[in-house]
Design brief:
The structure holds three protein chains of three kinds.
Chain A (H helix, E strand, L loop, with lengths): L10 E6 L3 H10 L8 E6 L7 H9 L4 E6 L10 H18 L7 E5 L5 H16 L11 H8 L5
Parallel strand pairs in A: 1-2, 1-3, 3-4
Chain B lengths: L5 H13 L6 E6 L6 E6 L19 H9 L11 E5 L4 H9 L8 E6 L7 H10 L4 H6 L1 E5 L2 E6 L2 E5 L1 H4 L2 H4 L11 E3 L13 H7 L3 H14 L5 H4 L24 H6 L10 H14 L9 H5 L7 H15 L27
Helix pairs in contact in B: 9-12
Chain C lengths: L8 E4 L3 H11 L1 E8 L2 E6 L18 H4 L3 E8 L5 E4 L7 E6 L1 H5 L1 H8 L7 H9 E6 L25 E6 L2 E6 L2 H9 L5 E2 L2 H16 L8 H8 L7 H6 L7 H4 L7 E8 L2 E8 L20 H19 L11 H4 L7 H14 L1
Helix pairs in contact in C: 8-11, 8-13
The chains are: A alpha/beta, B alpha/beta, C alpha+beta.
């Protein structure tokens, strides 16, 4: 667990209710340590998360976004995670194409019993993120701040 | 050269209108100068004289089908099909609308034409200056297909224009001159189908580092004025309420809570780079498996943003990741509505 | 209107770079920049950004005087409400090489914003602090029709200086006191204008009007006819072709409609004024749910009526169109304003 350069990355984690959220809970009750940088948003299924959620998280200042769901075959709604896999296979490419570093978005399959895996996923993700610094490419408000500061009387 | 005789096309349209089999025919009429045309709505056989088919016929008419869904061209109780002229690139748009269940096949009467390529006004402007083409010829000349290129027909003779310097870039990579679905074809069927190749600019961009890519795209996002022309002209963008457009969210003082909850404002009206990026990236993503590379978005953009580099990328990914071609067949299921056990998943931990 | 210049000087090509550099020192500089296939007016940080060879810029003076994103208020999410007013600074601004039609367009904008009862501080602060150097159009562009609406490729309306590109340099003509002050501040760069150059200037000024590629019907007659054409079928004819993108209004130099919204993020907020368009479907949606302009036909009608009927009725006959041609050229479906005006004349005669 490292946080380099004095910047603590802010990570938004979308976790599916039945598997990943329970897995995160298990990590907690088992007292497994993992970086505290994540802010969890519980969704009923990984399929609920559309790429807009990821973009919106970045726009609101997230440095990294995690999306975690059930393993293939274990989805509570049968095929939700398959849908998420298909959607994000394509979206991950598009995100990288516009210049967002690949380390800033990650999907994982974590089951309800994989408290350890959850902690590992978060640790690995935050470590890779820490070297990148804050996400400044897609953030709302920066340009508006510039507009304001350009109106300083000279 | 085209095998479609414009007179034969007019006769076919006249026959359709005389038979009263269709309610309106969507074609093209000559526009504000020799290089431009606009959609033409024909309802009676004597108006058909205005219908043209020439290299000036750049606008993709499929959009007008979507416009008709929202702003009816005719009376609501007129259940006859719409007639429409389609080229080799347009039929994919109709197929996608059928796949999305916005229209049924029998609601359009397709007159197919053989299109060897249409002009790009931005390129034409440059050519007009370089070749010092006279105002009279710009206004009164008429474009014709000639051999593999284009010419301006004027009273004093023909002015040839080099193919690469005048045609839309998508036309230089044409996949086939005639549509695969039609009710009547005016001209000869183009049987060869050349699969779309992503432009080398896409591959070149993919090879850059994240910061270099961002430098390119942030410049594009900064110049966007959020006119939504790319969305409004798009053949796959037919949502009544657009998720990324706050101007289509009909929230009023008396809106109920459910309405407000179901219409979150994803992005504000500020047209700054990140907000524009949110809009453009989301719209590109929504085109996965649906974008047919008609490149109308690119053509419509008043700031000349290279939007074709976004939609070509998304189309390339649909092909490489899922072996999926938008607009291939009405039997296909929409890409993101299905899943497959073999879908790529190596990117998932 | 072409006003006689207060003086005439010649700026040799060799001093152009220095000229741009000096302007940068004198104020916030806005000038045409090449962006791919087109040019746009942008804030300049270094002289090298400025493009000398351009036809028309996609955007216009609104980018400087009524910008698309204007922050008017900021607020913080604290226990005690904290609001900070944001106003444009009254810094000196200079626009280099504004086309005469775009400068003329400031007149209808002034009609609206420089109101006796409700003057708009954002617009006026920028307007009053901006010095505008025009660039005459010796060869107008494929969609220009300024001559038909009271304009001229060398119109001096609302300009402080007119520059004209000739062989080996530019002619620099101050038109107002501001223009003269600018000439004084840049005096070392200019040489005296020769008789040949003066004659050449007169020649190209005279010729430029004849080179306008398009003419529109007499605007006063269009105005008169519009009074009886509210219910004409011509509006549906054009509305059917329209896709409602709003480009015609967003890039029109005489348009000004705006929206005021709040952008909130991470505990802070910005109240912003952004461009809006009467061509957007929900522009006129009432909270009752009624929309007085529910069809594309009604919105196309609104745009033409506003320019050629309502604005002149409200403001002593001033037609709110300068003939720049952008609405036609940039329309993805080639909806041609001149053709609409021709249809108005035809329909008017039949009534």
């Amino acid at each position: 667990m490292t946080q380099t350069e004095g910047h603590a990355p802010k990570v938004i984690a979308f976790l599916c209710n039945w598997c990943s959220y329970a897995g995160a809970d298990l990590a907690g009750t088992s007292r497994i340590q993992y970086p505290p940088n994540i802010r969890i948003i519980r969704v009923m299924c990984s399929a609920r998360v559309s790429p807009q959620f990821v973009l919106k998280a970045f726009l609101e200042g997230a440095d990294g976004v995690l999306l975690s769901g059930c393993h293939i075959g274990d989805c509570h709604y049968l095929k939700g995670n398959l849908s998420a896999r298909r959607k994000f296979a394509s979206f991950v490419n598009l995100l990288q194409y516009v210049g967002i570093e690949p380390q800033r978005f990650q999907m994982s399959w974590v089951s309800a019993s994989e408290g350890g895996k959850f902690a590992d996923v978060v640790t690995k993700f935050v470590n890779e993120l820490s070297g990148l610094g804050p996400q400044k490419k897609l953030v709302v408000g920066d340009r508006l701040d510039e507009i304001i500061s350009s109106e300083v009387p000279s | 050269m085209t095998t479609t005789d414009p007179n034969e096309l007019r006769n076919a349209i006249r026959a359709l209108l005389e038979s009263k089999k269709i309610r309106t025919f969507i074609g093209w009429e000559q526009g504000s100068n020799a290089f431009r045309s606009r959609p033409l709505f024909l309802r009676s056989p004597d108006e058909v004289g205005n219908e043209i088919f020439s290299p000036a016929c750049t606008p993709c008419l499929v959009r007008m089908i979507i416009e008709d869904l929202r702003y009816p061209l005719d009376k609501p109780d007129d259940k006859r099909p719409l007639g429409i002229a389609l080229r080799g690139c347009d039929d994919k748009g109709v197929i996608e609308l059928i796949k999305d269940r916005r229209i049924k096949r029998e609601e359009v009467m397709i007159v197919g034409v053989d299109c060897p390529g249409t002009v790009d006004w931005t390129k034409a402007k440059k050519l007009i200056k370089d070749r010092k083409i006279s105002t009279d010829d710009i206004v009164n000349g008429r474009l014709i297909w000639k051999d593999r290129g284009i010419a301006i027909a004027t009273p004093s003779g023909e002015i040839s224009l080099e193919r690469e310097k005048i045609l839309m870039s998508k036309c230089l990579d044409c996949e086939g001159h005639t549509p695969r679905i039609y009710d009547v074809l005016i001209g000869k069927e183009d049987t060869k189908r050349i699969p779309a190749e992503p432009p080398k600019e896409v591959r070149e961009l993919e090879a850059r580092s994240p910061d270099e890519k961002y430098e390119f795209w942030d410049d594009v996002f900064s110049r966007c004025i959020r006119c939504y022309a790319c969305r409004n002209i798009c053949t796959y963008c037919h949502c009544e309420e657009c998720a990324v457009d706050p101007t289509t969210l009909a929230i009023a003082a008396d809106s109920i809570a459910a309405d407000k909850a179901n219409r979150p404002e994803w992005v504000g009206r500020d047209s700054t780079d990140s907000s524009n990026g949110f809009y453009l990236i989301t719209r590109a993503y929504h085109g996965t498996g649906r974008c047919i590379s008609c490149e109308e978005c690119d053509r419509a953009c008043p700031m000349r943003l290279p939007l074709r580099l976004l939609n070509r990328k998304v189309r390339k990914d649909a092909k490489e990741l899922f072996d999926y071609d938008a607009g291939k067949s009405v039997e296909d299921k929409p890409l993101l509505s299905e899943t497959c056990d073999n879908d790529p998943g190596d990117f998932i931990w | 209107m072409v006003m006689k210049a207060l003086s005439q000087k010649f700026l040799p090509k060799a001093r152009l770079q220095e000229f741009k550099g000096k302007l940068l020192e004198l104020g916030e500089l806005f000038a045409p920049v090449q962006e791919g296939d087109v040019a746009a007016i942008r804030r300049i940080e270094s002289p090298g950004e400025i493009v000398d060879d351009f036809d028309q810029t996609q955007n216009n003076l609104r980018a400087v005087i009524e910008p698309q994103n204007e922050v008017i208020l900021t607020f913080k999410d604290t226990l005690k409400p904290s609001l900070t007013e944001q106003l444009p600074a009254e810094n000196k601004r200079i626009v280099l090489w504004c086309r005469p039609c775009d400068a003329r367009a400031l007149s209808p904008l002034d009609d609206n914003f420089d109101d006796a009862l409700l003057p708009d501080p954002y617009y006026l602060r920028r307007r009053k602090s901006t010095t505008i150097i025009g660039l005459g159009c010796e060869k107008p562009f494929p969609f220009c029709f300024c001559g038909s609406v009271g304009g001229n490729p060398f119109s001096t309306d609302n300009l402080d200086v007119m520059m004209t590109r000739i062989k080996d340099g530019y002619i620099f003509e101050p038109l107002t006191k501001r223009g003269k002050d600018l000439e004084a501040q840049l005096a070392s760069l200019f040489s005296e204008i020769t008789v040949e150059q003066k004659d050449f200037l007169l020649e190209i000024q005279g010729k430029s009007r004849t080179l306008l590629p398009r003419t529109a019907p007499n605007p006063e007659m269009v105005h008169a006819n519009l009074g009886k054409l509210f219910d004409s079928p011509l509006w549906k004819k054009w509305g059917d072709k329209c896709i409602g993108c709003g480009i015609c209004t967003l890039l029109c130099p005489t348009c000004w409609c705006f929206d005021i919204t709040d952008v909130e993020t991470r505990g802070k907020g910005y109240r912003i004024r952004t461009w809006d368009s009467c061509q957007f479907p929900l522009f006129t949606l009432h909270t009752s749910g009624h929309n007085p302009r529910p069809t594309k036909a009604s919105r196309v009608r609104q745009r033409v009526m506003h320019k050629y009927r309502y604005h002149p009725v409200n403001y002593a006959g001033r037609i709110a169109c300068v003939g720049c041609g952008r609405c036609t050229e940039l329309c993805p479906e080639d909806i041609d304003l001149i053709e609409i005006l021709n249809d108005i004349m035809k329909a008017g005669e039949q009534q």
